[in-house]
Amino acid sequence: xxxxxxxxxxxxxxxxxxxxxxxxxxxxxxxxxxxxxxxxxxxxxxxxxxxxxxxxxxxxxxxxxxxxxxxxxxxxxxxxxxxxxxxxxxxxxxxxxxxxxxxxxxxxxxxxxxxxxxxxxxxxxxxxxxxxxxxxxxxxxxxxxxxxxxxxxxxxxxxxxxxxxxxxxxxxxxxxxxxxxxxxxxxxxxxxxxxxxxxxxxxxxxxxxxxxxxxxxxxxxxxxxxxxxxxxxxxxxxxxxxxxxxxxxxxxxxxxxxxxxxxxxxxxxxxxxxxxxxxxxxxxxxxxxxxxxxxxxxxxxxxxxxxxxxxxxxxxxxxxxxxxxxxxxxxxxxxxxxxxxxxxxxxxxxxxxxxxxxxxxxxxxxxxxxxxxxxxxxxxxxx
Length: 383
Hints:
- By secondary structure, this protein is α/β, with parallel strands linked by helices.
- Helices cover 44% and strands 13% of the residues.
- It contains 14 helices and 8 strands.
- The longest helix has 22 residues, at 245-266.
- It starts with 10 loop residues before the first helix and ends with a helix.
C-alpha cells in the first residue's frame, strides 16, 4: 500500500466513523456535545450521494438566521476566509471524500457574546443536485467563484445563481480579482450584492483585514441581510423531505411521544404534582424555621406554629394508607415512560426537551430563579 492510497485522517472523518458506529442515543448525545465547540457534519457522503445527518435538527439554533457558504467551480480558500470572517473553526479541506460535496455547520454555541447568525460551509465544488436539496434550508448564501472561472463559464455560474430562492440574501464573492475585469455583464447575475476580492494570502495583514472587515460589515448590515428567518415549522417540513424512511419513522415517533407528555412533564402545573407540592412546602417551612431565633426578639409562637406545620407536612408524605396523597398525573406519566423497554430512549428525549424549553426561556432574557418549580421543570423534579 502506497502513501497515496492511505486516506488522510481528519476530524471530519473521525466524527463520521464515530457517529456511524454509535447507537441512536449515543450518536444524538455526541452531536449535542460536539456542537458546543465544534462545527458539525451536516451533509455526509453516503454512497454516490449526500445524506443529511438527522441528529443536527436537535441542536439547530432556530431563532438565528443561517447562511451557507459554497463555491462554484474550483475556488480554494473558502473555509479559511469564512473562519476569518466569523471566528469559526471549519476544518481545511484535504484530499478526501469527506471534503467533496459535504457540508459542515457551526452554531456558535462557544461564543460568550452570541454570534447573530449560524454558518454552514460546503466543501469542494457545489453540485446542482446538492444545491437543490439544501437551497430551502438557508436564509442567505455567500457564493465564492474564481474570477477567471466566472468569465470563462458565465452561463454556468448564472444557472447556479438562478437556482437559489429569490427570497434569500445572495452575496457573490469574486475571488482572486485583478480589478481590471469588464463588469458590464455582471448585472445579469441574480444576486443582491457582489464584491471583488484580491488574493487574500495573509489574512492578518492590514490590507487583508480591511477587506475582511468590509465584507463582514456588508453581511451584518441590517438593510442587506435578510431579517425574516425561516420558521421552525418551515424548516421542519424541509428536513422531512431529506430524511430516509427509517429516520422519518423514528423522528415521528419521538414527536408523538413529546406531544403526549408535553402538557404534563414539560409545561405542567401544580395540580399534576400533589406530592411534590407538599415537598416544596416542607422546604419553604424549613427555610423559615432556620431563620427563626428562639432566644431573639421574635415571637416565639411563630417558631412553634412553623414546627407544627412542618410536622403535618412530613406526616402527609409518610406512606400510610390513611393519609397518603394521590401521586398525581405527572408521576403516573413519568412512571409509564420508565415501565417499558424504551426507557433509556424516553429519558433521553425527555431530558433534551426539558433542556430545550429552558434554553428558549433563557434566550428570551427571562430569569428562572424566582419562578415556581412548575414553570422550570427538570429531570430532578420528575425523579
